[in-house]
Write a structure and sequence with these properties.
188 residues, alpha/beta, 7 helices, 23% strand
Length: 188
């Protein structure tokens, strides 16, 4: 059984999708949820699904030792970032080489890097009058959004699409593809 830890900072819609898609699997299990924001929706999803959840302060995450201990304690094999708005430190990357997966709401290498998340990405795509956007699922390394790409999925954009329309199209791709790509990757 492959055990996943999901790290998130917000509502947890991607985390919930992964949890739901993993429920009937006998080869992959969500074994831990970690969040750095008190009261975030992802913590409620963990509680509702009987998954251990820990809220860690940003200072605890900065030290990395507490996080490493927690991951070991829960026998975690892979880390999944689902709306986690913190950079993963080098100690974690070294402890989980090519075993940390992130989803980014754009077609990297465009619109990646520090500060490029959520509506900031969709606003930039809109401002630059892109004809496509999408998602990138990639491995995590010590640099923002620079890990090797696992998969990308594209949505066509209409000239009339506003940032909220772009977000909706990207969200649909996330819901359709993120869990499947995770499961295929961790089971290779």
């Amino acid at each position: 059984m492959i055990r996943l830890a999901i790290l998130g900072s917000g509502s947890g819609s991607n985390a919930l999708n992964i949890i739901e898609q993993s429920k009937d699997r006998k080869d992959v299990q969500v074994g831990l949820i970690i969040c750095n924001v008190a009261g975030a929706g992802i913590l409620q999803h963990a509680q509702n699904n009987g998954i251990p959840a820990v809220q860690m302060s940003n200072s605890e995450l900065n030290s990395e030792l507490a996080l490493l201990d927690l991951l070991k304690e829960h026998h975690i094999d892979w880390i999944i970032l689902a709306g986690f708005l913190r950079k993963i430190g080098s100690n974690i990357c070294q402890a989980f080489p090519n075993k940390i997966i992130n989803i980014h709401p754009a077609l990297l290498p465009k619109y990646g890097g520090k500060g490029m998340y959520g509506h900031f990405v969709h606003d930039a795509v809109f401002q630059n009058k892109e004809t496509q956007s999408g998602i990138t699922i990639h491995y995590v390394n010590e640099h923002y959004d620079e890990g090797n790409i696992i998969a990308q999925f594209t949505a066509e954009l209409a000239p009339t699409d506003l940032p909220k329309d772009i977000e909706s199209k990207v969200r649909a791709l996330e819901m359709a593809h993120f869990p499947t790509v995770i499961f295929e990757t961790v089971l290779k």
